[in-house]
Amino acid sequence: MADDLPLILGLVLVAVAGTATVLVRDPVRQSFLLSLLGLALATVFLLLQAPDVALSQLAVGSALTPLMVLLSVRKVRRKARSERREEHE
Amino acid sequence: MSMRLRLCVLAVGGLGVAVLFVMACFDLPAFGGLWHPYGDRAVHAALARHTANTVSSVNFDQRAFDTLGEESILFASVVGTVTLLRQTHGEDRLPPEPVRVAPPVRRYALIALPVTLLIGLYVIAHGQLSPGGGFQGGVVVATSLHLLYIAVDYRALERIRPVGMYEVADAAGEAAYLLVGAAALLTGAAFLANFLPYGTFNTLSSGGTVPLLNAAIGVEVACGVVVLLARFLDQAVEIESEGRDDEAEART
């Protein structure tokens, strides 16, 4: 049991981060939580002796995907803002 | 269908899946046990082919066809992104103005850049020896280039990143994997079979075709990720919808 404690903590963190990502509705906050989820998953993979998978998860799950979400949100919001302004004019 | 009936159907379906899932879970071997029939065979095959990293041996030798599929998925998604995010009619390209970078950020990002690049190349080259490989190393290489955006500005990144070249290299990486696979046909072996001498165990030249396929994947993934991020960054930083955007916004 004591040996499994880090793994159990990691799995709990994954569950919490995953649930929070679904429950939070704002895409910007979601992307930060997604990054946290990626970090937690990478830790779990590392504890399960799969450093290959952990490395991919760290790069793609906690850096690349949230970054692409953030960039898309930025583009969409700018467009929405300029269209709103056009309606006012 | 009323809401109530829908929920009933959902409950029946969910219950069925739950029962099957629990039954399947009881049939699994115990977690973390000492009996690994698949693992034992994979390790045995990896050692027979002089590949120290069993995961690489499985990915690039024993099941190289699976990796070809994964590589093609990445390639197809990069092509799709390039097509969807291209500059269209009514969109202007405004060069973003540089913003002053805090000196500590600049210093540490510039120190981290060559180190990260080296680590990425190391991970690709040692794919058959240590954890990592073409995919992981490729992503690390691509990430390291973007440290230049953090350290200096977007124009500096654009200078070391001619997107057209990276697109060509991306396709070349994809093609190299297929060509190494097809080269096996010339020697009379099956497609993607390991046809090169296995080399000395635990050295850089071991593993036969594994390092070559790793390098092909490394080039494809690094260039693919750079192109992918370039398109997303272009859309977020440079491309404007015809004179609508706020001037202040355009400068950031």
Describe the overall structure:
The complex is a heterodimer of chains A (89) and B (252). With 89 residues, chain A is mainly α. Chain A is 88% helix and 0% strand. Chain A has helices at 5-23, 27-47, 51-88. The longest helix of chain A has 38 residues, at 51-88. Chain A is elongated, with a radius of gyration of 17 Å. The termini of chain A are far apart. The model of chain A has no long low-confidence stretch (mean pLDDT 89). Chain B is an all-alpha fold and 252 residues long. Helices cover 68% and strands 2% of the residues of chain B. Chain B is built from 10 helices and 2 strands; from the N terminus they run ααααβαααααβα. In chain B, helix 2 (37-48) crosses helix 3 (54-62) and helix 6 runs parallel beside helix 9 (210-238). The radius of gyration of chain B is 24 Å and the shape is globular. Chains A and B meet through helix 3 of A and helix 6 and helix 9 of B.
* Strand element count of chain B: 2
What is the helix tally of chain B? 10
Report the strand count of chain A: 0
Strand content of chain A: under 5%
Amino-to-carboxy terminus distance of chain A: 66 Å
How would you describe the shape of chain B? globular
Strand content of chain B: under 5%
Short description:
With 89 residues, chain A is mainly alpha-helical. Chain A has helices spanning 5-23, 27-47, 51-88.
Helix and strand layout, with pairings?
The complex is a heterodimer of chains A (89) and B (252).
Chain A: H1 5-23, H2 27-47, H3 51-88
Chain B: H1 3-26, H2 37-48, H3 54-62, H4 64-84, E1 91-93, H5 103-125, H6 134-151, H7 154-159, H8 163-186, H9 210-238, E2 239-241, H10 247-251
Antiparallel strand pairs in B: 1-2
Helix pairs in contact in B: 2-3, 3-4, 4-8, 4-9, 5-6, 6-9, 8-9
Give me some keywords for this one:
heterodimer, A: 89 residues, mainly alpha, 3 helices, elongated, B: 252 residues, two-stranded antiparallel ribbon, 10 helices, 2 strands, 2% strand
